[in-house]
Structure prediction request, 519 residues.
Amino acid sequence: MKPYFFDTYAVATSEFGYSMGIDAKEALARSRESIASKLDANSEEIIFTSGSTESSNTALKGVALALKEKKGKHVIVSKIEDFPVLNTAKALERQGFGLTLLDVDAEGSVDLEVLKNAITKETVLVSIQQGNQEIGTVQDLKAISEICEEKDVLLHTDATHSFTRLPLSVKELPVDLVTISAHTIHGPRGIGALYIRKDTPITKFMDGGFQEFNLRAGVEDIPSAVGFAKAVELVTEEETRRLKAMRDRVIEKALSEIPDVVLNGSREKRLPQNANLTFHYVEGESITLHMDMRGFAVSTGSACFSRSLEASHVIRGIGGEHERAHGSVRFTFGRYNRMEDADTAIEAMSEIVARLREISPLARK
Amino acid sequence: MKFPYSQKVLEHFKNPHNVGKIENPDGKGLEGSPACGDMVAVYIKVNSDTRVIEDIKFESYGCASNIATGSVITDLARGKTLDEAKKITWKQASEELGGLPPIKAHCSVLAVEGLRSAIKDYEEKPRACNRERAYHRRSYQAEAKACYEPPYWP
Prediction:
């Protein structure tokens, strides 16, 4: 990325311009091609954005606005989508769109029959993520995309947490829009992309100049795009297997060594880097703080931890009571973790949870 | 590394004071609920002559603010009379901790409610455990009257 901050720092011009601009443009094009090929897509089908949030906003609002006169005003999303999709869908609802929030089962899987029945002639878009950001459950995109294709409805999938960790090919799956981000694969923060299948009806979200095939205006963030492409290249299947092994170790160790623990999300159909467990009778923010003091960064679905002071909608969505959200801890693994980290993390958790249970009025003593 | 929590809050969080239950407490208060993600239990032992809180313990289910204020409340209330303890406010608790982020105010209010609830529990319950003493000591006659139903009082 550095050369694009200090040496080739020009704005990307069109092919007719000064040479530094052309160099910048070429770097952007190479990055685009790199990312497109990971999805089996064409270069012209990838636009860079400021991140998943913008990508999902563009997908939902762009398609909704394009089709509301022609087709209808109904949108379907799953109940456990991450906020960019969920809250954008709710914003559309406030603007007069019909919204169906699909229920999920106790593991977080969307029911295909329910989806089939929810689609109407007026439905313009279905948005269902590939893998859940919190509990890691992986949806059956193949079946979902076949349903949507058969019913002639556009399908968007938020692949922020699954891109490069799970296979996703737009040649094999009839998915129309895909949201991806760099930050989940050790790329820079503040850059993402949206795959838009050729000829998908979509209005521009960012109006202005004519960048990104006239689909998204704004001076392109070339250093970040270059960083994004590099991050994609650096992910290997071997690395993903390593993360999966660490994930499995954490889950097994936690379930066997610490009492009163439950797994959140599917055991098998699960993102390879994600483990999420609820530790009963203790609260998540306290756990997070204790873990931080020992050098571990984990996350929790507890209300005290979120910016909105609400318990995780994902845990609530799978039928968990509030306490299950408050006691939930998410462990995600990355390139720089080693297997020992899985062990030491659970050892630390064991001590922390025992200590907090001593203080808790709820724990059985 | 700038935490939203002060040093004092972190100390109370790491090593909270007076944690635990009291067997046969004179007063017990339980505020909050697991559904809220915040719960505080306060147990007190009161000297019935002097109305001084001789022992106080707390239990907590909740975030760092919750644990820290629970802990500091027990420090503030210990050795005080019930009337003095009733006057402790969450603001005082917060100041004692060097300040809390405003968004966490609700967590700390719970600890104060727990204390007041324990005091109320003591004041309102009949003095059954003092029955023997009440029977034998004139100064407890008023209290004793409350323990016994009329037919039993000689």
Observations:
- The first helix of chain A runs from residue 3 to 6.
- Chain A touches chain B through 23 residues (CB under 8 Å).
- Chain A has two domains: 3-234, 237-358.
- The mean pLDDT of chain A is 94.
